[in-house]
Structure to design on (838 residues):
């Protein structure tokens, strides 16, 4: 129902000598002042007091409804009243196409009577016997109204009236108005509707709910779908779970996760809840991040975990629990087998189930890291190999220059030799199931390999091979969120057959394009369509058969990582930042495993969803460099984002996963500095020269030593020494599992050089004033000078507390000043290539 209320105080055009008065002394039940118009001249005969509203535009109304709330005293309750006392008043209206001027004469005869209004009941009796004046509500229908608007009038003929509110509305289903006031009524929020006149609230559709604190203006929401992409990692003491947020958040942002743990006996006994010895970090329930570490398992037991997604309306109505599943989307269980032989038969497997194996070696020297994971699906119950059902043979071989296996396993740990793993299935054809993994940057053969769309003679064939064609009628474009090289980027919704709508980002190709532009535009979809990883932006499909040509991808609520971090400077814990880095490394590990080199990895090309999950985006090779505002022409004519690019790629275009690793180190630096520009305002040429001389970015303020060390490893000149993404994912997982490893910050260990000999020279030109100008902090010149810091020498020993003390109160500015002091003083750290291994 649509309601619009006109009763704004003061209501104008009261007739000469009329006796209506505006009072604001009354309070409502919430102690807010109520404006009432009152009149009470019950002792005097021949009363004729008029109160008139302002002109009310009819809008789309045919008939209007007038709801009056008022009190009317009954004449018997007023002592000494004479027969002049009345207990009614008149409601009238007058149609007009436009408002009359302020000085226009008031003609009561123009007004048509709607009704005489009487009170239902003037007084009610309280439990204590007091008589309380009762608020009456009366509604009258008026119309049809033909003119563009109308006035309402209230004629008092000698009653004692307090008019509390007048609401004027017309009926328009699906609308509501939550608050009184001269505002338009609103369409019911999504998943709700109104059924009665003058609704102040819309009711939720079946299956949708409002949490107790949700305002009536908010859409009705529902419980989320289960978490997705549940993955796990096991080491000797801990199980590390990670998952992606539900694809359907139910329309809410307050998603949390609960992890439940069941311990199952090996002998088929029913599973029991895990006892309290099993520890969860940070905790088992109410998780807001998408990972958890579980520790302190009992040996020789099977555990089953369920990850449940919840939001503010979970548990309302008869909503069901939304539990993550890794295979059948129900549960994940793991168990381990130890053997001294290089093979193991795993029995008791269920039919039609996906199993994931990984293997590691153990010697006196400790454990090796795990092999990559192998996925293996058992056949169904009726398969030919019924006799072998439920068994798999895992064969492990390791070779280092032809030594025997025993020696090799020992050497493997000590000298990191080459290792090959085989897994062989007895259930399905053995050859088909054999997979092999080799260390190094060779694509992982267990995964499909990336195919360069340019190798297709007909590029549109590549698009159709890797991307679904979407019927444009399924896409609803809502708003423009950015501009790309080829056209606008919009947000909107995609209807997926058999499912509900999902939010999407839509890249469009603007009209008037050349065939080459179309091909370049769609190249990104041909690339993205080959990827399937929770840390890579997902392609939903393309529109190529109608105009505009579009690429539709999943929507990432927080946009690009660099601007997101700048907007939330200082807001996250180190663990949250490391979680983001871990996600990016994991996405990059996937890309390098399938042989894709990104070439433009930078925080601006990472997208962030509303659960802080980071996903790598912006694929397109040649396009990357055209589109990226950071890309600059090199002396060899290439266009390259210099600050993010490895020296060998700048110098002779040697792009590889190892050059992506260099860029990843820069992304780490961007993340830990909350979106600071790498190398600040240095020119590209100076960056290239500094890097060539061996200088590297110093740690951002508050950066754990372990992370800066990892950055330095990524920035090694010799690309073969740079860590692989899988190493980095492992390393970051370890940091997350042992948060104390992140407590040592670079500033704690570096301090400033002990002696002047250790102190690098400052650039000669630097004065306090030039320096502050160069970092755009000129506004603090007086603070430095007033506090006695007149030379860069004196500034070099300032701590963050000193910076605060001289009056720099904004944390972002403190950060910028201190990191610049470090940068200047250290003149970029020389790479230390020893003493640290991932
Ligand atoms: N900008 C570009 N792509 C986007 C996406 N997928 N989600 C949100 N913002 C974007």
């Amino acid at each position: 129902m649509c309601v619009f209320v006109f009763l704004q105080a003061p209501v104008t055009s009261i007739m000469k000598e009329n006796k209506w008065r505006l009072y604001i002394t009354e309070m409502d039940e919430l102690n807010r002042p109520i404006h009432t118009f009152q009149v009470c001249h019950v002792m005097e005969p021949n009363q004729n007091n008029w109160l008139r509203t302002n002109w009310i535009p009819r809008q789309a109304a045919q008939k209007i409804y007038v709801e009056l709330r008022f009190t009317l005293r009954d004449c018997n309750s007023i002592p000494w009243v004479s027969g002049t006392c009345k207990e009614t008043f008149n409601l009238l209206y007058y149609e007009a196409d436009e408002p009359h001027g302020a000085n226009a004469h008031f003609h009561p005869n123009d007004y048509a009577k709607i009704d005489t209004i009487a009170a239902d009941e003037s007084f009610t009796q309280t439990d204590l016997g007091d008589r309380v004046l009762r608020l009456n509500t009366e509604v009258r229908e008026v119309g049809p109204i033909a003119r563009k608007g109308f006035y309402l009038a209230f004629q008092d003929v000698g009653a004692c009236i307090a008019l509390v509110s007048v609401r004027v509305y017309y009926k328009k289903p699906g609308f509501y108005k939550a608050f009184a006031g001269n505002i338009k009524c609103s369409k019911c929020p999504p998943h709700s509707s109104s059924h009665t006149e003058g609704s102040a609230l819309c009711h939720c559709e079946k299956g949708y709910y409002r949490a107790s604190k949700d305002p009536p203006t908010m859409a009705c929401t529902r419980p989320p779908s289960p978490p997705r992409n549940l993955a796990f990692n096991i080491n000797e003491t801990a199980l590390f779970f990670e998952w992606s947020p539900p694809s359907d958040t139910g329309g809410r942002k307050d998603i949390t996760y609960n992890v439940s743990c069941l311990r199952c006996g090996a002998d088929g006994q029913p599973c029991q809840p895990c006892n309290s010895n099993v520890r969860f970090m940070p905790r088992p329930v109410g998780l807001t991040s998408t990972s958890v570490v579980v520790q302190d398992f009992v040996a020789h037991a099977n555990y089953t975990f369920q990850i449940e997604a919840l939001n503010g309306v979970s548990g309302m109505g008869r909503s069901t629990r939304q539990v993550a599943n890794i295979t059948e989307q129900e549960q994940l269980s793991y168990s381990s087998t130890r053997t001294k032989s290089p093979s193991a038969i795993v029995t008791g497997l269920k039919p039609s189930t996906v199993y994931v194996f990984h293997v590691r070696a153990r010697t006196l020297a400790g454990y090796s890291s795990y092999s990559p994971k192998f996925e293996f699906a058992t056949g169904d119950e009726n398969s030919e190999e019924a006799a072998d059902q439920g068994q798999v043979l895992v064969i492990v071989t390791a070779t280092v220059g032809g030594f025997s296996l025993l020696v090799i396993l020992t050497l493997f740990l000590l000298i990191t030799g080459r290792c090959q793993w085989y897994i062989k299935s007895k259930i399905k054809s053995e050859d088909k199931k054999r997979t092999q993994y080799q260390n190094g940057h060779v694509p992982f053969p267990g995964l499909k390999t990336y195919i360069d769309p340019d190798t297709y003679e007909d590029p549109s064939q590549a698009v159709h091979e890797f991307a679904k064609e979407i019927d444009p009628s399924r896409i609803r474009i809502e708003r423009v969120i950015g501009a790309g090289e080829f056209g606008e980027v919009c947000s909107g919704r995609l209807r997926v057959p058999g499912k509900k709508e999902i939010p999407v980002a839509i890249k469009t190709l603007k009209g008037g394009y050349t065939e080459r532009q179309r091909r370049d535009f769609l190249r990104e979809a041909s690339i993205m369509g080959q990827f399937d990883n929770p840390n890579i932006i997902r392609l939903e499909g393309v529109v190529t058969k109608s105009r505009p040509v579009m690429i539709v991808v999943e929507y990432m609520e927080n946009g690009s990582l660099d601007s997101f971090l700048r907007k939330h400077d200082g807001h996250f814990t180190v663990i949250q930042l490391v979680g983001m880095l871990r996600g990016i490394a994991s996405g990059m590990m996937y890309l390098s495993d399938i042989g894709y080199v990104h070439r433009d990895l930078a925080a601006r090309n990472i997208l962030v969803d509303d659960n802080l999950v980071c996903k790598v985006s912006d694929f397109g090779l040649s396009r990357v460099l055209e589109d990226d505002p950071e890309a600059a022409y090199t002396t060899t004519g290439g266009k390259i984002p210099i600050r993010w690019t490895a020296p060998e790629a700048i110098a002779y275009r040697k792009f590889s996963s190892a050059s992506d690793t260099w860029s990843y180190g820069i992304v780490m630096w961007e993340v830990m500095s909350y979106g600071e520009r790498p190398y600040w305002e240095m020119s590209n040429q100076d960056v290239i020269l500094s890097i060539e001389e061996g200088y590297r970015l110093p740690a951002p303020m508050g950066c754990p030593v372990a992370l800066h060390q990892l950055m330095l490893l990524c920035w090694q000149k010799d690309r073969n020494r740079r860590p692989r993404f899988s190493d980095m994912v492992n390393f970051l997982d370890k940091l997350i599992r042992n948060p104390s490893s992140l407590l040592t910050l670079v500033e704690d260990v570096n301090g400033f050089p002990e002696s002047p000999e250790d102190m690098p020279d400052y650039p000669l030109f630097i004065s306090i004033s030039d320096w502050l100008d160069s970092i755009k902090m000129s506004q603090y010149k007086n603070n430095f000078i007033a506090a006695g810091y007149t030379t860069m020498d004196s500034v070099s020993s300032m701590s963050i507390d000193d910076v605060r003390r001289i009056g720099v109160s904004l944390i972002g500015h403190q950060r910028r000043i201190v990191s610049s002091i470090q940068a200047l003083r250290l003149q970029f750290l020389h790479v230390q290539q020893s003493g640290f291994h991932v």
User: Anything to note?
Assistant: The chain has a mean pLDDT of 77. The first strand starts at residue 2 and ends at 5.
